Amino acid sequence: MITNSKELNSNSQPIMNALRDLNIFDQDNEFQSQQSISIRLKSFFENISTKKQFLKSLFKIVEQEIQEKGNLQKQLKLLLLLHIILSSQVARSEQSKIFISKQINIQTNNTTLGKVCQQYYFYLYKLASQTTFINEDVINGDILIYFTLSNQCNLGISIQSQIENVEQFQTNQLLGNIVKYIYYDLQDIAIFIMKDVKSIIENQQEIQQNKLQILELYKECQVLQQKMLSFYRFNRHFQHFSQIMPPYSLVVEQHYLKELQENKPKIYSLKHLSKLNQEHTKNIPQTSKQRQRIKFEFGEKKKKEESPQFSFSN
Question: Which of 23, 91, 165, 259 could pair with 112 as two cysteines, CB 3.0-4.6 Å apart?
Answer without folding.
Answer: 165
